[in-house]
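ingest -> validate -> predict -> emit
validate: passed (alphabet ok, no gaps, 82 aa)
predict: started
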Amino acid sequence: MAEPQLSVRSAKARDIAHRLARRENRSIAEIVERALESYEVREAGREPVADFYARLKEACSSDIDLEEIIRAGRVPYSGPDL
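emit:
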């Protein structure tokens, strides 16, 4: 099956993508993907995943025992009330 394609009608964008692809020894698709990802992070204000997990780890660094928490909250079931 053919790969999806993105059509850009800007000669300037095409030239820049080709120039970067040659210089970085990457495909044009990789150049465009990386540029769009960078733009999304910068303009949409989204935090990169690695930074998010690092911040989450720092903020919630306490280690918890989930088994202990589950055991503490368990209540035996006495069956239906007839």
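The longest helix spans residues 28-44.
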